[in-house]
Amino acid sequence: MTDVIEQTEAKGGGNPNKLVPYAVLAELTHRCPLQCPYCSNPVELERVKGEIATKDWIRVMDEAVDMGVLHIHFSGGEPTVRQDLEELVAHASKIGLYSNLITSAVLLSKERIQKLADAGLDHVQISFQDSTPELSDFVSGYKNGLEKKKQAARWVREVDLPLTVNAVMHRQNLHHLEDMIQMAVDLDAERIEVAQVQYYAWALRNRAAFLPTREQLDEAVRIVEEARERLKGVLAFDFVVPDYYAQRPKSCMGGWGRQFINITPSGKVLPCHAAESIEDLDFDTVGNKSLGWIWENSEAFNKFRGTDWMPEPCQSCDRKEIDWGGCRCQAFALVGNAAATDPACALSPDRHVLDEPLQEAMTEAPEFVYRRYGN
Ligand code: SF4
Ligand code: FES
After folding, report:
1. Mean pLDDT highest for which of 6-15, 94-103, 213-222, 324-333?
2. What is the pTM of this model?
3. The sheet that has 269-270: what strands, in order across it?
């Protein structure tokens, strides 16, 4: 994302100062040809018959623009399985939304990329599981995906669309980080996201297979810092250190209900892509309410918005409007309470729950369980 609009500060709960979201993540489908074991989609996937129609997405985009949203990310699952993708991109372009396609790229043909570019697509982000065909196939559970992804990336650049390489790194592939960075340079990407697996939903059950060791992480930081300096003006870096090893949590989603809206394939509106993993939250859908109403009034958005909901030590902490108490989904996943301080914070009384996984990271990685759409 290149533009960030000024946000008014939210004090307390609710949305009294009219925060404006700047991006919508449109999960068009949960269908996906890959089987990544660290999938961040919910454990219960939406079936195709539950997906909302083209006209619904078009109405939702119109409502988003009325609210002041600037960006839309077309995501999934694999969004290119939707045959109406060009129509959705064309509408986003017509109403002035900057559109980004987040894709595994294995289904993209040269003709499809040309059509999407002609429809007005602004940016493409391709996920890579590794820089070698063997590990790429093994992690994604998909044969010969790497070459397809590289070919699609070249076609993206041929039609002059900017490209981001999303490199998902973990203990099984961090030794290839330098090669992943070089691959992004060779593909003429403008940005690389060195992304760490986040452990919610399906990924949580495979945590022991993917959580890196401290040594791997220190080496990754060294590699990224060196490459960031060497590749200034060639490749931009986004690098998020896994917070299991941090002293303070990340500002997840830039704060709950402050910047982002996530819409699921069936039209549920979430403050975060993993919010359905929090079992006691209810979500409104675009079939029942307008996007603007949901952003302002829905219980799910207001529950952890601002600072009123925070327990100690967050409530009296000088970082509470910096990291917003960390990640609600992580608090729920690890301590069973979404209103707890993120246990990734060293000040949290629950910090000890990270001891066991960090110990597991020192042992041999166990086998993982693939994510299959049919699961
Ligand atoms: Fe952030 Fe809460 Fe930790 Fe303070 S106590 S750093 S606000 S998570
Ligand atoms: Fe949901 Fe962090 S992933 S709030």
Report:
1. 94-103
2. 0.90
3. 236-239, 191-196, 163-169, 123-128, 98-103, 71-75, 23-27, 260-263, 269-270
